[in-house]
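Listing S7. Sequence submitted for prediction.
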Amino acid sequence: MNAKRGRPRNVEAERAILTASYNLLLEIGFGGVTVDKIAEQAQVSKATIYKWWPNKGAVVMAGFMYAISERLPIPDTGSVFEDILLHATQLSRFLTSREGSVITEIIGEGQVDDKLAVALREEYVRPRRAEARQLLMRGIERGELKRELDVELSIDLLYGPIFYRLLVTGDGLEDKIMKSLITSAFEGIKQ
């Protein structure tokens, strides 16, 4: 029997912690956020936060994901090209918004904070890849994409340029650019 030990999380306290961590992230950036400040704003103890999350990076990522979960829906237009284009365009619009710019800050901080890098990969990157994988698998099932398609490599081809432009070149991610990037990448993967 696998009964859970201890009391379940207090939903109101959890929501207050997640909201406080996200609001602080937007207000003062990742570097300025501390567990003390989250606890103070959420009106909970630090012990409560550490009982549920192992470190600052984990609670900040959880707060970020809690706040943005509705911002990036998974499209189903009936066309894999249109689904990927919409998904990638929504992602690029989000990443270039004030809220989304937090991701670039977290990626930067993750270069020197291993725990934050793990939280970023677990909470943000893997779920986004799973969404893209779902879209591509749907396209394979419908016969729009090559049956033998390397899905993981295709995700890199389709979404990698977004992060390259965002983090390395600083070039724009306007809708017109996104359409060109996705159209070019699709030439190699479509049926």
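Caption to Listing S7: primary sequence and predicted structure tokens for the chain studied. The radius of gyration is 19 Å. The longest helix spans residues 114-141.
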